[in-house]
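Bumping with the actual sequence this time:
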Amino acid sequence: MKTTTILLLGAILALGCLAAGCSDDDSPTAPALTIDTAPPAPPATLTACDACMAVKLSWAANDTDTDLAGYVVYRTALGQTWQLTVDPIDACCYLDRAPLAGPAVYAVSAIDRSGNESARTTFLHHVTIVDDDLNRP
């Protein structure tokens, strides 16, 4: 029933357009939809340092992309990669409060509001965890 109504309405509109002398150029067009598929620029100058049983990461802000949603932080150690931030963060620093002792590769990417993620900027850091309780007699 609905199909018949739509077809009938379409036929009436088409006949009305023919009677009025419309051409294909006069028919309404849908506005162009632009889809953002370009990733933002990756963060620059990633550094890491030990900070009281944690690793502090910092990087240069991405000032070139106007639709930046934030940054995503990753850590690769012991053959596994973890995403340390659940959602993109606004800050240009991150404190890994649960680092694993030994070598770790930290990476940070930028993500825009369309969900496009940049390449990851990486930094190899050797985590040294010193627990004062272990050193006491």
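The tokens above came from a reply further down the thread. The beta strands are 44-50, 55-60, 68-77, 80-83, 93-96, 102-112, 121-127.
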